[in-house]
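Thread: quick sanity check before group meeting

JM: Hey all, I'm pulling together slides for Thursday and realized we never actually wrote out the predicted structure for the chain we discussed last week. Dropping the sequence here so it's in one place. If anyone has concerns about the input, flag it before I start.
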Amino acid sequence: MATTISIVEDNEQLRGTLAKVIGRAPGFRLASDHGSAEEALAALPQVKPDVVLMDINLPGMNGVECVRQLKAILPGTQVMMLTVYEDTENIFNALAAGASGYMLKRTPGKELIEAIHEVKRGGSPMTTHIARKVVQSFQKPKDQARPTDELSELSEREQQVLDLLSQGLIYKEIAEKLDISYETVHTYIRRIYEKLQVRTRTEAVARFFQR
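JM (edit): ok, ran it. Output follows.
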């Protein structure tokens, strides 16, 4: 079954470009596209896409607020933010609102498709800069810090994978870096999540930086 994608982007030309990229990608189907948050919120509960590509700087309601409201309606839909700049504050707010990751609008089509695949599989593509910002929200005063003994339970290879995750690499890049298959990377990450007792990349990276 094809992965359904909806686009929320006010720039008509870029919206059309994204639609073409998705339309050409095997296993993907463009479910809908919208020029504003208000339009998206009215339509998406009926469309129920698997993944939404969301612009941050929208006219009227911004993308961050749109994500917050959308996730309350469609908790199973994954949202990936699209942005022109690494606007740390907005991106962090979007992640806190329920987005699964972000990509720059200038990202080549092939990389964008790979990132959507990763989001669909439960990943959260983001750069180290943003990952570190997210980590700050997890950090507590030293006397309240969570124990990190679980990190010592990771194998050497699992620690390597977690290190690359913390650098913002997507699964395919980790596979190439370590000369292993994509499926093997996915297996390692599942084991890392289990050992660290976390459910997302963001939480895993936070534990890594709390060492």
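AS: nice. The CA atoms of residues 92 and 134 lie 6 Å apart. The two ends are 41 Å apart (CA to CA).
JM: adding both to the slides.
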